[in-house]
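Annotators were shown the component list below and the corresponding predicted structure, then asked to write short factual statements about the assembly.
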Amino acid sequence: MFRWLRGPRDGLAEVERLFVEMLRDGRHVFDLAMQARLGGAAPEDVADELHATEERTDEAEREIRRRVVVHASVHGSQELAASLMYMSIGKDAERIGDLSRGIFNIAERVGPPPPGPLREDLHGLSSRILPAITGAGEALRDADHDAAEALIVEAREVQAHYREQVDQLLREELSVPQPVASALTYRHCGRIMANVLNIASAVVMPLDQLDYPTPSNDP
Amino acid sequence: MRPLERRLPRPAVRVLRLLTMLALLYVFLLSVDLLGAGLAGLGEDAVDALFQGIDNPIVGVSVGVLATVLAQSSSVTTATVVGLVGAGAIGLGDAVPVIMGANIGTTITNTLASMGSIRRVEEFRRVIAGATMHDVFNVLSVAVLLPIELLTGVLSRIAIALSGLVGDVETGEFDSPLRALVSGVTDQLEAGLTGALGDLGGAIGLLVLAVAGLAGGLVGITKTMRKVMAGPAERSLNAVLAKAGSLGIVVGAVLTVAVQSSSIATALLVPMIAAGVLRLDNAYPITLGANLGTTVTALLAALAVDQIAGLQIALVHLTFNVAGVLVLYGIPQLRTIPLRLARGIGEHAAHRRTLVVAYVIGLFYLLPLVLILVLR
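Structure shown to annotators:
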């Protein structure tokens, strides 16, 4: 009866819901792109679904921005840090969809690499990145510091691996089929994990340190 | 130390807010009654001298603009006018232009809020257009409806007819259900102050209490309700962000009734317009809704007066704003005029930003002041 007297419901709760949903979509786009890249699905079979899901992540980012502006307009400086954080990590989540589409574009042009160590390595990378994408959203939603710290460690390991692979490809120390396409695929995977790392850093870092997590920077 | 509201359990906070609201509402209604008692104590000659010249409609509009700009609240102005009319200090006909002027004066808050964007040209263009849209609409409403009212008295006649539904138009009596709650306290305060300060001192004391209570009560109500309504306001604004039309009018009206301030309700839109997430044509109906919602304050104030004229001026405020929306928004050919004019102002302001400072000082301070001094 006196529902109107309950006071301000956290308007950012809806933003958080949208954000977690956006990461689920981002994971799905990445999954479809890697299936196409590694031969698990024909690019033409997943193209429509991939593009529709990726467009949904773009629209979700715009919706998050709009809601953050409305929230800040109504609440003033209350929850300013959280509002700015969502503006920042909304971009990260959108980039995951963007970079995954980049992997799909490679798959459309060159097709999957032949079976072998490269394909296995990319497959392994994919299976580490997939849970990390949604894991970052869940860590943020649950304010789970331990999960976020674990994700940051995982992201660093994946990035180190991709840098090593790209380095070897640049120096032609690694003999693989589709060397340029492979380097680009590693690069996109590494960037996706960098965005996951940015999102995880939002759980454990102060606002000014977002995207620059260091182990000693525990607030 | 954490604020009290954060230390208490939620149900206790709700009860506390409800009690605070009731107390503030009581202070507001009591202040309206004190105003009448204070004016009665001053005597007829002093009251006549105080409101000399207000029978000139241009002076009336100017007084309404200036009083609202100085109080930063049209609600304070309209509630005061209700109290004055209810006490017989000014007549219904003389009060109508003051009420209309309050509508113009209230739009300054938006324009001042938009100054925060003055260093960012594109943002400033949008936000000034958004702020002045309310100015333009309200100035046009007065320009159209004041002459009609002066010639025909149509708004007053409708208000008088409506007041007949709850009071006796012939005798001028209005048996307000809430009046009994405040009149006893007013009598005690009057007796106490007059006893301590004499007749004139007591009357002045009552007037000081009345003005302080009106402004303080409304500020308190606005602050409390803003906290209470923040969640629903956010949800409503999200719902109308991409939609123009009557839903926006409803949201603007409900929001303004809830926070008891059209200035606050419309100022919420400024950052959204500045950021570009709320388009001008979608903000327009919300602004008009705010014009309608703000009329509730005067109607509330009318519950504290025993003369039906107080209710009649509150109803004039309502009919004037409803007529403004019906004429300028209801007629499709007129609907876009305020928008086009506001966009034009936005274009000019973006190129010559100092013009906005001159516009604010000129329209809201200098012009009304000069008109009062010259025509009074």
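Statements collected:
1. Chain B is about 80% helix and 0% strand.
2. The longest helix of chain B spans residues 179-240.
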